[in-house]
Each structure stands twice: as C-alpha cells, then as structure tokens.
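#struct-queue
[09:14] JT: dropping the first one here, sequence first, then the structure tokens:
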Amino acid sequence: MRAAVMQSFGSPLSLERVDDPVCAPDGAVVKVLATGVCRSDWHGWMGHDPSITLPHVGGHELCGEILEVGSEVHGFAPGDRVTVPFCCGCGVCEPCRLGETQVCERDVQPGFTIWGSFAELVALPKADLNLVRVPAELSSVHAASLGCRFMTAWAALHVHARVRAGEWVAVHGCGGVGLAAVMIAAAAGAQVIAVDIDERKLQRARELGAVAGVSGQVVASIVELTGGGAHVSLDALGSVTTCVNSVSCLRRRGRHAQVGLLLGDQAAPQVPMGRVISRELQVLGVHGMAVRHYDGMLRAVASGAVQPGELVAKTIGLDGVGEEVASMGRFAQDGVTVMVP
C-alpha cells in the first residue's frame, strides 16, 4: 500500500510503498476512504508524543470500508463502512468494563501508538468494541470530519459540561475543534462567544452560530458580554493563554472543559486555582469520546441539528498530507481538511 511515512520528527513526510497491514484475530483491516488532518497529527510530527516510534504513519480521523475481519470478530463484516475513536479500548481494564473506553488503561491510538490512516489501508484493534458504523446518508468525507475534533467537542459540551439552552458558552480558538464546538453549542440553544486572533475565523464562527466574536481583552470582554461570565468555557486550542483565559472568564460555578492538547512548552499552565476554589468552578478534562456516546451524536447529525460537513474547508490527496501537517504549526487552516486517498 501507499502511505505518508514519517522518518524523522519535523521533517517532510515521504510517500512510500510499504507492507499492507496484517489483520489481528480480534481486529479489522480497513480501506481508508477519507481521513481528517488534525493539529494532534502536527503534535505527533513535531515529536511531542513519546508513544510514537519511527518510522511512523500518522492519521486518526478516518472513515473507511472494512476489507477483512479477524476470526474472533462477530459484529462487523467486509463491506461495512466504519469510523473509530482515536482512543481504542482494550475491553479488559476497569474503565473499558464501565464503558469509558476513551480513558482505557492500555489504550491503542491509531496514528500514535500504532500506524494510522495517512495510508490506503489501516489495521484497527478490537473491532467489536471500537468500531462505529457510519450511516448510509453520511458521506465518507463528512464522516471523517467527525474525527477527533467534532466528537471531542460533542463530548465536551454534552457528556462533560452538559450545556443547557440559554447558557453562555465561550470557545477559545476557532480551528476545527473550536468551530465544531460553536456549531454544537449553538444547536443546543446556547449563546456562543467565539475567541480568536484571526478575524476570518471569527467570521466563520458567526456564520456557524456565534453571537459575538472576541479577539482582545478576552476575559473582560466575555464578562461584559455575558453579564458576569460564561457558564461553560472551552479551551479548544491548547495553550497557556487560552487555558487560563477559559478558566478566568467563567461566572461562579461555571464549567471549564480542556479540549486542546497542552504539550511541549505549553504543558504546564498556571491555572488560577484560588479562583477555581472560591467560585466553585469545575475543571473538566476531555479525552475523546466513548463509543457508547456515538449514537446520540449520529442521531443529531442525521436529524440535521448539526452538520459537521459544513466544517470541511478542503480535500487533498495522500501526496498533500505532509505539507498540510506541517502547516498546522502556522494555524493556516480554515475549518477541517480531509485527505481522500
């Protein structure tokens, strides 16, 4: 098969012919139909993820067609169109037994701990536990846009923060996951304030349902616009500044959801814990979403309440993945880029 291979961190990916993946007895081999290019892939390419060993193939926001299943797989068959969370469970540890596969103690992450979907084929583990069927009415490109960004934003707002109609929601960072959060929160009836330094991204957030955009004096502006602070705030970027601003802009008993990865020199923000205590704020970590929550999200997509396909800004071929991953460091994307092999 062809794959975009990383031979060294931070160096251009090379398009190579490599061995086809082998199907495990409990796994599946999937033909990649579409896969998102995500800032998490950039972190991996930069060497921020110690689980990656070289050479490596990234990519984790995939939709594909099953070509082969192992002898122990009973719930899926060749021809099924599927997606998968970026965090695949083992099925044995306590979190997995409780249905929380996204925090599996021995998780497998395509594109990180194993080779991923920047390729024509990808092997996925524990198929019966981890795979999710893609509805016929959802195109493969749009299914790939669910990726880790849309589904993580869905989990942040609906599973963790439990956003309610009429609440104020602040979204810090209007890349793919931030714009997904804007769309999801607005569809839930919340009043959304988008935060970004790029006016084009703020305009896109307004088109997706934000009632206001903020680019400077972030905390003071949000407190003024909301009459006291946001009920829910998401750091959708992952930086010291956006994390601290997200916590600081909350009203009393507000909920902060950390969605963006804090890695490299941004790994240790000084969170104002005195404010967290005195205002009884909730700080919520979000590590993807368990398979058991996909049904609610997919029903919302099928009903038209949310339309993740609107987040897709462009599609590229496998030969364009390397350049696209590298450009993530410049925040050059407007919305979601999807690779179609």
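[09:21] JT: and here's the second one, same format:
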Amino acid sequence: MTSRTRPVRTTVSVVAAVSATLLIALAAFLGLQHQTSANQASGRGEGRSAGAEAQELGDPDYGVCRGTSAKCYHDWGNFSPAADGYRVLLYTRTAGPRHANLGPTLGTGLNPTLADTNVVQNALVRMGTKNGFTVDWTEDVTQLSSPARLFRYNAVVFYSTSRDTLDDAAQTSLRQYVRGGGGFVGIHNAFGTEYNWPWYEGLLGGANFYDHGPDQRGTVVVQNRRNSSTSDLPARWDFTDEWYNLVPAPSKVRVLASVDESTLAEGVTGNQGHPGHGRHHPVAWCQYYDGGRAWLTTLGHDAKAFSTDGSFPGADQFQNLILGGIESAMGRTPFCRAG
C-alpha cells in the first residue's frame, strides 16, 4: 500500500510545483502587460518606449567602448590642426519642432545665407572667429553623407536638431567619423533627435529627452572644476532654461554641471509627468564613445542665452560652457579630465 501511495504523493508534489511555477510566470506576465499598458496609456513623449525599457533594464549596452577612460579614444591621425587649423561643422536641421533661436530654415549647401534671426548660427560663427577656429554651418543632410567630408572638421555640433534629421548615409558617415576619432557636441534638442537609433542615444551618454518643466530660472552647479568647459565658471550661476528631464539618464559619463532643483520655483515636473531627477540632475557631461569624444549639454533653449549685454543672467557662463565643450571635443584643450 505504501509503495503505491509514494508515486501518487510524488505526482501531487510535482503537479503542485509545476502549478506554482506557472502561477508565478502568469503573474509576471500580467504584471509586464499591465506596465506596458500603463506606459502606453500615459501618453509619453517620443522615444519613451526605448527609454522606459532602458530604465527598467539598467545601464544600456550599446556594444561600443564608452566611458571616461581615454582608452576608448582612437587616434587614427585623421586630423592635423598644425597644418589645417581647427574647424567645426554646425548642424541645425530640424525634421520636427524648431526652436525659435534657430531662426528660419536655411537654404541648401554649405554656409547658406543667414538672417539676423538665425541667432544660434550667427553666435557660433562669431564665437569661432573670436577664438581662432572656423565654423561652417548647414541644414543640408547631404553635407554629412560622406565620412571624408566630415573628417575636414575637428568637431561636429548638433544644436537643437529634431527627430529624424539624418538619412541612412549620414548616419553611417557620422558613425565612421566618430570611430575615426572625431569630436561630437550635442546641445539642447540634440537630445530630441534620432530617437530610434540606439548608437546615437549612446553618443549622447546613454541619455534621451523625455520631457521638461516650465521655462524658468534656476541655479547651475558646477560639478567638475578641472574640465576645460567649466574651469573658468563660478561654482554656482543662475540661468533660465527648460531643464530637460531624461530617460534614460546619462551613465558612464563625467558629469560637469547639474541644476539645483530646489531653486526652480515652478518645479521640475515635466509635461509628461516626469518628476525630475532629485539631487542629481545633470545638465552637462562628457565621455569617450566608440573611438571619439562627445561633449553634451541640455542647456541652450533661449536666444537670449547668446546676449552679450548682461541682460540675461548666465548668458556669459553658458557661452563659456559651450565654447569650452567645443574646444575640448575637437582636441584643442584637454578632454573630459577628472575633477
């Protein structure tokens, strides 16, 4: 009798164990479905799906060498500043919303005519002239379609580009340029660009735009005083911006500056519900990425940030910040030093 009941008990145990496993799996599946439905129903901004997944899975892996170690930089001898000087390409093409400080859409080709209202383009050209480097500008994607063309520049600057601003050829060209030791500078809505290209998200520091709170005054806190872009800045300085919230937030980068969220009178909660980043809300950082250098800032929304008459608090500091970022990305000054 006992010999017959043992198999029955064993069977019951096995069935119970299998049932428990199935229930756990079913619960996990339903939980995942609930989370997915909640994310979809919440009306998140563009890029939300990839960002949410990255946040849930932890630090994204972009399959390249990235971080703050110069071991991730590849010097292929593509640049000869002693012979060619320093040259920057400014790219401001928008395939979606266009920031007012970019002014009217530019014509085709390289260095098309600028209007006075093309504030960003005019300001960076003046910055280059004043500081001894040449700035070319374009919104023509064909100007980025050849790695050989990009290797004429020590750095490529994306300033408030938007959405799918590159075609396949330009994507390939940009990646080859960075892999060949090129410098990349992403400013403001460069974070609202190429949402569906994981390599580009990694170039931004493993970060992506999610939303932002009200355009308001706040205090920028310098986190690294040895970096070329922040060494001459005060420890704290006031500035007005949109204060981007990011999903995912930057990782494996050297944070250069952050915003003190407690100084934002209207709060930092974004228009899609992001609550902000608390005590660690980065606004500028740097990294080595896939062979090249990348310097990034989410600041730069307002045209008045390029004023020179002292009427816009923090304008001088902002301009010095991006000047230092450009010069370090193109290799003119030490890049991404530890604080």
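[09:30] RK: nice, looked through the second one.
[09:31] RK: Residues 1-58 have pLDDT under 50 and may be disordered.
[09:31] JT: good to know. The helical segments are 2-41, 48-57, 81-84, 119-131, 147-150, 168-179, 198-203, 315-329.
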